[in-house]
């Protein structure tokens, strides 16, 4: 049964258990399902046969017994195969010829695929045999439809980490195999947790990797005062992190804790508290009052269930965004296209954003109009890109609170939004204060000049929806000394590892998608260095012919960080609306609960291996031509990529 | 006028000279053409204007005067532009806004393209500005049709070489720019020779690069005892090497040697000997008896002409192969396809090969049949894949020489070749000795067993035309203790740099071509480490079920070697025919004058940067399935490539 009902952890709710080879796998499976687990991982072949090695003319390995075929649909969902650690036959195996390790492995993987198992676990090869395993694996993977391959990788404990011992870094072996297999989406990692807990940095580097499951040995468990299994705080945190990445747990090893009573204790009795509203999920299978025999691994399942259910459920905005995790969207082009109703609705619900705008306008009104002139002096405020009116509302609310006189022009080019805007003004009886101007701001001739120009034209990367060009154009409406809200914004960028995001791009299988930036709620990724500022813009500008082309080179230090594969750059922005009122989607300064913007992701055509400690040098250009603006980007350290998107050939924003 | 008439050096026969900015470029050009040069390299812009920098609203730079347009066709062939070394305007250039270096460079490069100049020379950027120059260059390159871009790169002299100072390695900067420009075929290097000669290793690394021209300063010249310019032996070797790679020379700098007489000396009088049969080409322009004024650079041109003409002209096979240099061919599949007449003719002309076969058969006959049995014992020899009969001829010739009795079966599946074979036998009256068997050897049932099995089924990589499979099959014709000629063969492989070969593959713009090995007369390439043995096969085999699948991992040490870009692997083979009779296309043991096989080239999808001294680890697999054999290959050091050609998806040899 699932570990809990939460929806924010994907398939992590299904837990597995590693079982020994059994000739009657159906019985073994049922026994473990009864103990609460959802699937088992089981050797496909009798290990004794592996030791003896197989005659070369064998075309059929000694698989677990045949009647598994009778329950194939169930088997495929509930059994993950474990491939044997084939070794090459000894040279001393004279006489009868033996099947080579590669041949045997291929037969075994093809069997797993034939059975439509959800996955098959492979042992991590040592040293040079990496390439040979990868060759077999890559050939098989190219023909897979349902089955995934999970490569078993030990999670390196603290003692062996550090930047100097990269030769012993299991991530490197993993990276070799998946690179040799051309980053196939069919290949994932099964992380082997050790009794010793790895340092946080070692855990974080796997967030960007396709980890499919954790293998958790029973000897990693401690015993609580009531004799039940429990985990150290560090192991708890480890599991919680991976649960949140949607990573399943597979328990391995013998039970080391006897279940004290036949009628088992509830979790609270076990010594760990029951999270509110989730007690029933941990009730054991044999809860019918009959004194059933408890499976020795059942207390472990109960503990995992407790851990799984413990973190608070996501609420509000966070809950809404679950469905958007790692989902790539091409950025909006509001200047070129008209937004849809639903888009307006989503954005208008972003209360923190409009509260900040109201504060900015509030402060600007107080600064501009002293109390003595409050009743006599009218401030002219223009909203460029008024949409369905949220900034008009914010402005009028600020005026009310400050008791300043305000005249508002609401300029909006989308005729559909203007319909709603008219209704809002009529319903609120704001006709005296608000003038709706249903034109493209670029062609409007204003009847008077504005004291304050308010806009919300920023994209995930700040300038990427052409705010600089629009506001430079709209500046002609602004009186000398007038205020632009926002008055400045800056983009930020850093390199990331994210097999997930890159894999989505690879799936399109064309150049264009590698040369397009995406708006995406990044979830399974690892930052490779903190973000750095990229391009800044200020409004109003004093330059009569402002040049909004930009270019910059950024060096991202990675001292003390382990080797990683860079899959691209992640971008953010922050903006100063007015005075000390700012909005930010920069991870370190993110405006609380604001949801209008996800980060932006610039992919690389080829992921780039970054050795331990090696800095990354990135370059980005904001280019413009007559009717378009676009970005180009490249890496030059630790090695050199091609420049992506020359001349905006794959992606540009139309002016 | 061209430096000489030789055909083996491509466009190297055209030499250029670097001239200063001239408002009347037509006159300047004519003056230098009269001195013997074929083209000039000239600044496109008055350097004084560059120093002052250009106002930002300029859309036209101060180009060399306008009437060059009147002679555009001539201009485009005979002038290579030199772009200015634009610097960014100083921040202190207050007041009027200045064109940025990038903007000015773009205008200049686009002007060169507009003029259809054959090329435009760019200065090598320093440090980080590499990426910014590359961005402009890459954008312009994507729109080029006729014009090439030559990046000026200093040829590093001995003092600054070594593996430790890669930061100061100009090749690294070159490599960054061309990688950022995605290895465009429009981008080449102009190598700046210094007065100090570089070490050989530094010269060799440029063989694999798209070097378009050498820039040779007059101050690199010495003075001979008659007062004429001459070069040191090291500089001579440098030029000769690059001439043979088709690289042009551009002379730069003032004349440092006065031409002693108005009626100039012939080269012999200048103190350097005239190569036989090429004296006329160096006769000066004003050779009409009139005392014309000699251009001060003319003696340099004469010396270059002498150097160009000095090496012996290629003859025979070497001359024939000129047209095949760096020309990619997909390997033959003689088992699947029937060879054409012309292919047979080409191969049959390979005297060294058939001489070796005759020697091998000769030795085998003597070993098998003692003199005492010479008249009584008949040796049965089968030629499997007899083609039009060259091995039949060689066998009969060996029999004659050894005075041994021989019975020959000539097995050939190509009905077209059999026609010629019948005519040969009839013409030579060999009907009693030779039986023609016009079948596929795989389906033949032999009437008796052979003592010797002779075949020529090897490809450029030894086993790549399925010799192992064919000979294993034909082994059933062979009597116990019988001999196979060849009795063994081994393939060899090493990593190479070759922008030329890789560029040819890139031109196809699809995955398949990156996953195909090519037979090619490699010319513009640099070996990155000596070849190492790969796969060996022996015949006859004792194994009743021989497994011809193979895999191997090779580590290529590069201690002391500079950084390089690996474009793929080059393959060769050698074979033991019998005893000590071998054939080889391995560069270090190549059979003299044998021309039947060019090397084989395995490309990489992405060229791989190898730091100075870093070893390269490569893997190759020979795989087989029911009806096909194919190779897969990958690199894992210094970084990891994907495995190429999984399951033979792009290339295989049909069984």
TrEMBL record, chains A, B:
Residues binding S-adenosyl-L-methionine, per UniProt: 344, 353-354, 412, 440-441
Site (Critical for specifying symmetric addition of methyl groups): 347
GO MF assignments: protein-arginine N-methyltransferase activity
Gene3D superfamilies linked to this entry: Divalent-metal-dependent TIM barrel enzymes, Hnrnp arginine n-methyltransferase1, Vaccinia Virus protein VP39
Ranges of residues in domain PRMT5 TIM barrel: 36-309
Region (Disordered) location: 257-284
Annotated active site: 456 (proton donor/acceptor), 465 (proton donor/acceptor)
Record-linked InterPro entries: Arg_MeTrfase, Arg_MeTrfase_PRMT5, PRMT5, PRMT5_C, PRMT5_TIM, SAM-dependent_MTases_sf
The keyword Mitochondrion is assigned to this record: no
GO cellular component: cytosol; nucleus
GO biological process, one term: methylation
Pfam families reported in the protein's UniProt record: PRMT5 (PF05185), PRMT5_C (PF17286), PRMT5_TIM (PF17285)
Listed Low complexity bias regions: 258-284
Domain PRMT5 arginine-N-methyltransferase, chain residue ranges per copy: 317-485
Keyword Transferase: yes
PRMT5 oligomerisation domain mapped to chain residues: 489-652
Keyword set, alphabetical order: Methyltransferase, S-adenosyl-L-methionine, Transferase
Protein family: Belongs to the class I-like SAM-binding methyltransferase superfamily.
Name the UniProt record assigns to this protein: Protein arginine N-methyltransferase
Organism, as annotated: Coccomyxa viridis
């Amino acid at each position: 049964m699932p570990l809990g009902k939460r929806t924010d952890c994907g398939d992590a709710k299904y837990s597995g258990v590693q079982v020994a080879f059994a000739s009657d796998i159906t019985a073994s499976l049922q026994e473990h399902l009864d103990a609460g687990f959802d699937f088992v991982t089981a050797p496909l072949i009798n290990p004794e046969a592996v030791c003896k090695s197989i005659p070369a003319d064998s075309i059929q390995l000694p698989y677990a017994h045949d009647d598994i075929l009778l329950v194939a649909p169930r088997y495929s969902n509930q059994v993950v195969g474990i491939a044997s650690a084939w070794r090459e036959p000894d040279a001393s195996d004279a006489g009868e010829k033996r099947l080579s390790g590669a041949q045997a492995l291929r037969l075994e993987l093809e069997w797993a695929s034939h059975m439509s198992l959800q996955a098959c676990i492979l042992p991590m090869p040592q040293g040079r045999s990496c390439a040979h395993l990868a060759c077999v694996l890559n050939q098989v993977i190219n023909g897979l439809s349902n089955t995934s391959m999970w490569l078993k990788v030990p999670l390196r404990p603290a003692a062996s980490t550090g930047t100097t011992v990269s030769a012993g870094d299991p991530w490197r072996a993993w990276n070799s195999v998946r690179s040799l297999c051309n980053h196939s989406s069919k290949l994932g990692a099964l992380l082997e947790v050790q009794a010793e807990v790895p340092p946080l940095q070692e855990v974080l580097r796997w967030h960007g990797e396709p980890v499919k499951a954790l293998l958790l040995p029973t000897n990693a468990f401690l015993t609580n005062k009531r004799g039940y299994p429990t985990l150290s705080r560090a192991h708890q945190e480890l599991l919680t992190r991976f649960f949140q990445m949607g990573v399943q747990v597979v328990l391995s090893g013998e039970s080391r804790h006897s279940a004290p009573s036949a009628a088992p204790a509830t979790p609270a009795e076990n010594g760990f508290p029951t999270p509110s509203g989730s007690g029933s999920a941990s009730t054991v299978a044999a809860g019918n009052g009959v004194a059933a025999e408890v499976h020795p691994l059942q207390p472990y399942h109960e503990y995992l269930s407790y851990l799984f259910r413990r973190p608070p459920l996501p609420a509000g905005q966070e809950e809404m965004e679950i469905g958007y995790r790692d989902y790539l969207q091409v950025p909006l082009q509001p200047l070129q296209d008209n937004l849809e109703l639903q888009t307006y609705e989503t954005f208008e619900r972003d209360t923190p954003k409009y509260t900040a705008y109201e504060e900015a306008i509030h402060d600007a009104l107080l600064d501009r109009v002293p109390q003595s002139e409050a009743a006599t002096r009218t401030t002219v405020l223009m909203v460029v890109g008024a949409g369905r009116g949220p900034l008009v509302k914010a402005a009028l609310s600020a005026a009310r609170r400050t008791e300043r006189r305000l005249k508002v022009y609401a300029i909006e080019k989308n005729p559909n939004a203007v319909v709603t805007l008219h209704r809002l003004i009529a319903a609120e009886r704001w006709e005296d204060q608000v003038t709706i101007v249903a034109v493209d701001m670029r062609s409007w001739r204003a009847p008077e000049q504005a004291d304050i120009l308010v806009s919300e034209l920023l994209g995930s990367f700040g300038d990427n929806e052409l705010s600089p060009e629009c506001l430079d154009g709209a500046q002609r409406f602004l009186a000398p000394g007038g205020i632009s809200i926002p008055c400045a914004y800056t983009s930020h960028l850093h390199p990331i590892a994210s097999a997930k995001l890159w894999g989505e791009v690879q799936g399109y299988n064309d150049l264009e998608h590698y040369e397009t930036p995406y708006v995406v709620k990044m979830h399974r990724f690892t930052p490779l260095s903190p973000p750095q500022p990229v391009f800044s813009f200020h409004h109003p500008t004093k330059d009569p012919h402002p040049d909004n082309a930009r270019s910059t080179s950024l060096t991202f230090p990675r001292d003390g960080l382990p080797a990683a594969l860079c899959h691209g750059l992640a971008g953010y922005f922050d903006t100063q609306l007015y005075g000390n009122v700012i909005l930010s989607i920069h991870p370190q300064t993110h405006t609380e609960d604001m949801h209008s913007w996800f980060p932006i992701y610039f992919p690389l055509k080829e992921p780039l291996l970054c050795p331990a400690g090696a800095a990354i040098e990135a370059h980005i250009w904001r280019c413009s031509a007559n009717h378009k603006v676009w970005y180009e980007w490249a890496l030059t350290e630790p090695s050199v990529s091609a420049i992506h998107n020359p001349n905006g050939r794959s992606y540009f924003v139309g002016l």
